[in-house]
Design goal:
single chain, 313 residues, twelve-stranded antiparallel β-barrel, two-stranded antiparallel ribbon, 4 helices, 17 strands, globular
Length: 313
């Protein structure tokens, strides 16, 4: 865990020394707020910190191991529409027979550009390049010695366009993402054995129902404040191998994740189940929980501003 903090603090320190300018808040698109989802990424750039994200499940190894992950991710706006994220995960594995191994996964970064925002249509699109830096994690927990590059497209769309006859469906929103993961090495040789590193389509999304939207943009039902801050949702995250297969019959693995997010003024708390789509994705259900901090609301005049503002001329 100390290494996660050291990496996050190092990046934050460099960023904090750069000039500050003015910006908008996190992922609002017109009347629509897209929360930071736990499994897939949301379609906006923002100043945010996820710390911690904790998950526990039985992984897809054969035989399966009990896995517990603790991760952190720091996101920073460089401009109003371009941001970077850095993150790392500590992994604890309890293998069959009682043997345990633990260590950090590879360091991850993301460079995201939010290129389309249509407030009237509650529609947003962005693109990113995600980099998993090979050799920065522990071999004991299976961190890859090679890097993986994943260009990804994101989209978010609210259902506020629906007619009044369907007004109670207006709080619905959907997000989606699709990327293509390309390892920097087509194969890895270890102890005289060659392992192929497949390329994959990485895809997923979420379906959300926003109680804050129901109250503010549809109808105030007089519900308790706690209920009015909830966003029930279902996420899904899958990966489909497309080439350079390394044995095995299952080409698609992933999870479906029903849960709920509570949206506070300066933070959100989320919890979801982890349900594998097949045996290669995991053995039985698990769970994930996250504390997510809105740094643009906590530090609105300092860290919560982009480093460089767009020109007003």
């Amino acid at each position: 865990m100390a290494r996660i903090f050291m990496r996050a603090v190092a990046v934050a320190t460099v960023i904090a020394c750069l000039p500050i300018s003015h910006a908008s808040a996190h992922c609002f698109v017109g009347n629509r707020f897209f929360p930071a989802t736990l499994i897939v990424d949301d379609p906006c750039v923002a100043d945010e910190l996820s710390l911690p994200t904790v998950s526990a499940f039985r992984n897809g190894d054969d035989p399966s191991a009990h896995e517990a992950d603790i991760s952190a991710e720091l996101s920073k706006k460089i401009t109003d529409t371009f941001g970077i994220s850095v993150g790392d995960t500590w992994i604890h594995l309890r293998e069959p027979g009682g043997k345990t191994v633990q260590g950090f996964d590879n360091f991850a970064t993301s460079f995201k550009f939010q290129f389309l925002t249509d407030p009237a249509e509650e529609f947003v699109m962005s693109a990113s390049l995600d980099v998993d830096w090979g050799g920065t994690g522990s071999k004991a927990i299976g961190a890859e010695p090679f890097s993986t590059l994943t260009p990804t497209l994101f989209v978010g769309k609210g259902f506020g366009f629906l007619p009044e006859s369907l007004k109670y469906l207006k709080p619905l929103a959907i997000t989606g993402q699709v990327g293509y993961a390309v390892p920097t090495q087509s194969s890895t040789i270890e102890d005289g054995e060659t392992t192929l590193n497949p390329q994959s389509v990485v895809w997923g999304g979420s379906l959300q129902y926003s109680m804050p939207y129901l109250k503010s943009a549809v109808e105030d039902k007089g519900l308790p404040d706690f209920v009015n801050r909830l966003i029930p949702l279902v996420e899904w995250s899958l990966s489909t191998e497309t080439s350079n297969f390394n044995g095995g019959e299952e080409r698609t693995t992933g999870t479906v994740n029903p849960g709920v997010i509570y949206v506070g003024d300066k933070f959100q708390i989320g919890a979801e189940a982890i349900i594998p789509v097949n045996r290669a994705s995991g053995d039985g259900a698990g769970g994930i929980a996250q504390l997510h901090l809105y740094l643009d609301d906590i530090f609105p005049k300092t860290y919560g501003q982009p480093l460089f503002a767009a020109s007003t001329h």
